[in-house]
Amino acid sequence: MKRREFISLLGGATAAWPLTARAQQSSMPVIGFLHARSQADTAYYTTSFIHALAENGFIENQTIKIHWRFADGHYDRLPKMAADLVDRSVSLIVAGSDPAALAAKHASASIPIVFGVGGDPIQLKLVQSLNEPQGNATGISILTGSLEPKRLGLLRDLLGPDRAIAVLLNPNLVPAQNQFHDIEAATKTIGWRPQFFWVSSDAEIDAALEKIGAQHLSALEVTPDPFFDTRREKLAAWATQNKMPTMFQFREYVVAGGLMSYGIDIVDAYRQLGLYAARVLKGEKPANLPVLQPTKFQFVINMKTARVLGVTFPPGLLSIADEVIE
Questions:
Q1: Facing residues of 99 across strands?
Q2: How far is CA 106 from CA 12, 171, 185, 217, 225, in A?
Q3: How far is the C-alpha of 277 from the C-alpha of 284, rounded, in Å?
Q4: For the segment 129-156, what is each residue's pLDDT rounded down to a tens digit?
Q5: Which listed CATH number (3.30.930.10, 3.40.190.10, 3.30.70.370, 3.40.50.2300) goes with 145-263+298-325?
Q6: CA-to-CA distance for 29 and 303, rounded, in angstroms?
Q7: What's the pTM value of the predicted model, to 2 decimals?
Q8: In the chain, which residues fall in CATH 3.40.50.2300?
């Protein structure tokens, strides 16, 4: 797999915080880590976040404390979790996902926030601009929502024109309406017919998948959403069992058995979050740290799933894949 890199706004490697400076602190700094997903299914990339902190002298339970809060896909839990972190007077809130970032921003206008969001941070009112955030928040815009046209284009390259496609969206995700309009426009451009299914619970997912299976649609597009991420194994398994080509946002879906994904390297994104968190803990203000954006993306294909589905990839599509899982 080719290395996926972010815009170089971080500059050179930052030096570890001197031991003498740490010794002067009356207590170790505390990070509140808030995420809409679950602890178990994010462990592989939160580890990257922890390593980035350690490289800068912030070692968990030695020179820094982290309060971990995960909503397990239940967004209504996030406001209370964010308020609890504020009550604990954390030094910094790291918010993974749009719902977590919005909850953190609502909970405090003064505690520094470092976020990783898929939607537009300006539209979400997290920052005033990407170059000059001007508030207490900055972070990474991972662009998951804006990549729908590219994902649909790759699906069309595989399946051809004049197709009806099922699209899963979560009405509880703030950028969902933008996703809806983006997909409407993109499918119109490629001559496809989308059928939208709005789901926000396991029961609603089951009902939607039953309808999708009964209608014999050509493909399934699962829009970027932390709730869907926590159900990725279920969604990938259903698609394989029902011989439904699928497109997802992250490589983890393809590892779980999904057919294709197109998006950022989420492990590297959380390394960047760790580096930004370290800079804030060393005294830099979020208002002065530009929001990072990725410039490279990864296209991943699961050939084992393709064989089960009876799908043949054109040579041109295979040639542009960054990773082919056999």
A1: none
A2: 33, 20, 32, 41, 20
A3: 10
A4: 999 999 999 999 987 767 889 999 999 9
A5: 3.40.50.2300
A6: 46
A7: 0.86
A8: 19-143+265-288, 145-263+298-325
